[in-house]
Specification:
Blueprint lengths: L5 E7 L7 E7 L15 E6 L14 E6 L6 E6 L6 E2 L9 E7 L2 E6 L13 E4 L8 E2 L6 E7 L6 E7 L13 E3 L3 E2 L2 E6 L3 E7 L5 E7 L14 E4 L5 E8 L5 E8 L6 E6 L4 E4 L10 E6 L5 E7 L13 E3 L5 E5 L5 E5 L10 E5 L5 E5 L4 E6 L6 E6 L11 E8 L8 E6 L8 E6 L5 E6 L6 E6 L3 H4 L2 E3 L7 E6 L6 E5 L16 E5 L7 E2 L17 E5 L5 E6 L11 E6 L6 E4 L5 E6 L31 H5 L2
Parallel strand pairs: 1-25
Antiparallel strand pairs: 1-46, 2-24, 3-4, 4-5, 5-6, 7-8, 8-9, 9-10, 11-12, 12-13, 13-14, 15-16, 16-17, 17-18, 19-20, 20-21, 21-22, 23-24, 26-27, 27-28, 28-29, 30-31, 31-32, 32-33, 34-35, 35-36, 36-37, 38-39, 39-40, 40-41, 42-43, 43-44, 44-45
């Protein structure tokens, strides 16, 4: 029980929709070649300076960028005309890399591989390996959290957006960071212009994201913590301006803008002297988002990343655990591991319902159509039986949501599905959701709002509450939800927002913790995770979707314990039933959740069940999405 083993399915918010690649635009010819290779998701690039002589070369010979092709963000270098990007030295065991800068043979990047000494503290720090493979040096002081590094043109100075040593305060849209070495407040996405000016963006007092400029000098006898500053608000009101990139030897900067009433983010050149804009990407690709511009040394080329088309999957990044990727939510594997049930859309009825896919991605079926469904649980004893919730997710206790039992037959040679849907809860009982079937297949535990509060109930898995009645498992004016039955049937794990140690009063409706209870209602206890028991921060836990490992020794869940990595407020964790051996399994710049264990132990990278293909029309990427927090913050 020293380490969990197996395969984990999970949902990452927004990740399947992007399909980003890095492009550059020649401002003289308006040609837009793709610089990355179309594999996975590629973003946050910079023109690379491998040697000092490259600083004056305006040809975009090489870029350094971040790619998720190995399952999590890592740093790559690619040369003009190359079909195979070169992986650069990364931090061993890191789940996250960001904002690489390759300057004069030195690679600066953000990594999240060193665990902080307290919960709710970020993992992000600035590191500096050289390309000869020497030891990676940490530039961020231990106990501090840094983002968004920028290196001056000469390579003498580096600045970061620093969260310092304070614990994460829960911000998502705008982190309250400081700029170090330059002392200013709440700055993000830093970029140098020469060795004396730094541009950055932050949300201004009027609510608009704007570009600011700080000018300073570094006298040899001056304490850099007390440098005199000259802070200038650069961009005008009424336009969201993000991610500046300085154009050398000029008053111009390339920025991403989001104009009032417009749907897409575009790259523009802003002339600070004349306060005028020149559109760059809108005339070429008007209906795509464009992000994170970067500029060649001579300002002839503007680079950025944008949607390119369909995306492919990735490989393993956690020892002994393998990811599988599909476009949907609430994945649930059949007991034999051959099928995955999931919900493709939780909002629109056009592509809603319950879908089943073969674990090798070769075929897919839709069980129910034109009805929104969420959270699926297979019967462990009956073949081709799934339980689901039908109705709107995140409704009030009185919103009508029903528990349904779906029995189906996939054997028809013509592809038609015979499907029998049986509702197990009464229509007048409000919000019934998140079913989990007992190991013997006889009972369902689920959450219901029938009393005006969302508590747990147990009902017959075949007849529902109509013939056999229903039994209330928990009772109180709080929220109990997302229950999961242990493999031996002795425990039910769930999470609730009642954190008073004496269970007398409700507290903090936005924070949830793991609880265990026996099916007869006895033995209720909170799982205190390692490092949090007795801590004043314990009630800031926001944990959801708890489930058991196959052997019943581990709990798998998503949580906010790792603070912020860009805006990935939730990562996937495991811990033993007593809360010890807490381990973060995965994180990225988005948000991971809804994890599920694969029922088989032997699924690995070479197993076809660990790959999902995207051959269906509704899975094709079209670049149409609402900007998520990760790319709205642009830290």
């Amino acid at each position: 029980m020293d380490e969990p083993k197996g395969t984990v399915l999970f949902t990452t918010i927004g990740r399947p929709y992007y399909g980003f690649d890095v492009f550059s635009l020649d401002l003289t010819s308006h040609c837009e070649p793709r610089l990355s290779d179309g594999l996975s998701i590629n973003f946050d690039a910079q023109f690379a300076s491998v040697s000092a002589s490259d600083e004056d070369d305006d040809e975009p010979e090489a870029i350094v960028f971040v790619s998720e092709r190995t399952g999590c963000p890592r740093v790559y270098l690619t040369w003009s005309g190359s079909s195979q990007p070169q992986p650069l030295l990364s931090a061993p065991g890191s789940l996250f890399h960001d904002r690489p800068v390759l300057r004069n043979g030195w690679l600066y990047f953000i990594s999240a591989h060193e665990e902080p000494d307290k919960p709710f503290a970020g993992w992000s720090a600035l590191y500096l390996p050289d390309l000869e493979g020497r030891e990676i040096a940490r530039l961020t002081p231990y106990g501090s959290v840094d983002y968004s590094p920028a290196v001056s043109r000469s390579g003498k100075f580096t600045v970061v957006a620093s969260y310092g040593s304070r614990p994460w305060g829960g911000e998502f849209h705008a982190l309250n960071t400081d700029i170090v070495v330059v002392v200013a407040e709440s700055g993000c996405w830093l970029i140098w212009s020469g060795d004396s000016i730094v541009y950055f963006h932050r949300k201004a007092d009027d609510g608009w994201w704007s570009i600011f400029r700080v000018k300073f000098e570094f006298p040899s006898d001056t304490d850099v913590s007390r440098l005199p500053l000259s802070l200038t608000w650069v961009t005008p009101l009424g336009i969201h301006c993000f991610t500046p990139a300085a154009m050398p030897r000029s008053n111009k900067i390339a920025i991403a803008t989001r104009r009032r009433g417009k749907s897409y983010r575009h790259i523009e050149i802003f002339n600070a002297a004349s306060e005028s804009f020149v559109p760059i990407t809108k005339p070429i690709n008007s209906n795509f988002h464009h992000y994170s511009p970067f500029v060649s040394p001579g300002s002839r080329y503007i680079g950025y990343h944008r949607f390119r088309g369909e995306s492919t999957g990735g490989d393993s990044w956690v020892p002994n655990l393998e990811p599988v990727m599909l476009n949907g939510s609430f994945p649930s594997l059949s007991p034999d591991g051959q099928f995955i049930a999931f919900n493709h859309d939780l909002v629109s009825t056009a592509s809603a319902g319950v879908k089943i896919i073969r674990s090798d991605g070769s075929r897919r079926w839709t069980l129910i159509k034109d009805r929104i469904a969420f959270y699926n649980s297979w019967s462990p004893t009956e073949k081709n039986v799934i339980y689901t919730s039908i109705g709107l997710i995140f409704g009030s206790p009185k919103t009508t949501v029903q528990i349904a039992r779906i029995k189906f037959d996939l054997s028809s040679p013509d592809g038609d599905i015979t499907c029998d849907v049986k509702v197990l809860t009464r229509e007048d009982t409000g919000n019934n959701a998140f079913p989990s079937c007992s190991p013997d297949g006889k009972w369902l535990v689920f959450r219901s709002g029938r009393t005006g509060h969302k508590n747990l109930y147990i009902v017959d898995a075949v007849n529902g509450e109509f013939d056999s009645g229903i039994r209330q498992l928990t009772d109180g004016p709080w929220i109990d939800t997302m229950p999961s039955w242990s493999p031996n049937g002795n425990l039910i794990a769930f999470f609730l927002n009642w954190h008073n140690p004496h269970f007398l009063t409700p507290h903090n409706v936005t924070a949830f913790s793991i609880y265990l209870i026996r099916p007869d209602g006895s033995g209720l206890r909170r799982v205190h995770l390692a490092g949090l028991e007795g801590s004043p921060e314990v009630d800031r836990e926001r944990i959801n979707h708890v489930c058991f490992s196959k052997d019943g020794e581990w709990l798998l869940f998503s949580a906010n314990l790792g603070g912020m990595t860009i805006d990935g407020g939730a990562g996937v964790y495991v811990a033993t039933l007593d809360g010890s051996k807490l381990k973060r399994l995965m994180c990225n710049g988005f948000e991971n959740g809804l994890p599920a264990w694969h029922p088989l132990d032997d699924v690995g990278p070479s197993d076809p069940r660990s790959r999902i293909s995207h051959g269906w029309d509704e899975d094709k990427l079209r670049g149409q999405f609402e900007e998520p927090l990760r790319i709205s913050c642009d830290i």
